[in-house]
Amino acid sequence: MLYCPPNYIHLKKGGFGYIYISMKYLITESQDNKMVEKLTNSIKSDGWSRTSKLVGGNENLIKLLGITSPMDFLHLFDDMDVVQSKEKPNWTLFRYSKGNNLMVLDKKNEDINLDYFEIWSILENVFGLSYSYIQKLIIAWLDEVYNLSDVIPDFYLVYNNNIDGMRYKFKIRK
């Protein structure tokens, strides 16, 4: 009888003997892509915290998504819908679903209100980044992805019922 190492399967006899493949490598790339897509969609609809609980914590979610840097995390939000607010003509909303704005650009006051709970706090608490590093990272991401150049942090938290919660506020430089 042929010996097969644990957690491996025998594929075929090759020119140099038998070929074995680890079971963990049998998951196809398309299955991996589907899993990443489902987890990403869950983050966008339910938030990072709920999604990380589903997979056993932040470290597992980071590994499953293949996130290797904090910028990779921000790139999860590269495809937000950008819509003009009907109620506030000076506002541009960045979101995945109506009523759940992750960023609000207020053109009149020239500032951007960024969702603290879904973006900033993850960078701070999960990735362990300092306040100033997060600011620089977000500025670079906003410029790269949404062409919002020349933004500078205003360094304060805002509570605004119209925006529905706490946000870090950024000011657009003229």
Order the strands across the largest sheet as they lie in space: 3-4-5-6-8-7
Q: Would you list the SSEs in sequence order as H and E?
A: EEHHHHEEEEHHEE
Which quaternary structure do these chains form?
single chain
> What is the helix content?
25-40%
Average per-residue pLDDT, rounded, comes to: 76
Q: What does the overall shape look like?
A: globular
Q: What percent of residues are in strands? A: 25-35%
The whole-angstrom Rg is 22 Å
What's the number of extended β-strand segments? 8
Uncertain residue segments: 6-27, 154-166
N-C termini distance: 77 Å
Q: Biggest sheet, in brief? A: 6 strands, antiparallel
Class by alpha and beta content: alpha+beta
- Tally of separate helices: 6
Written account of the structure:
The chain is of the alpha+beta class and 174 residues long. The chain has a domain at 68-174. The chain contains 6 helices and 8 strands. The strands form 2 sheets. Strands 3-4-5-6-8-7 form a 6-stranded antiparallel beta sheet. Strands 1-2 form a two-stranded antiparallel ribbon. Mean pLDDT is 76; it is low at 6-27 and 154-166.
Write a concise keyword list for the protein shown above.
174 residues; alpha+beta; 8 strands
Short description:
This protein has 174 residues and is α+β, with helices and mostly antiparallel strands.
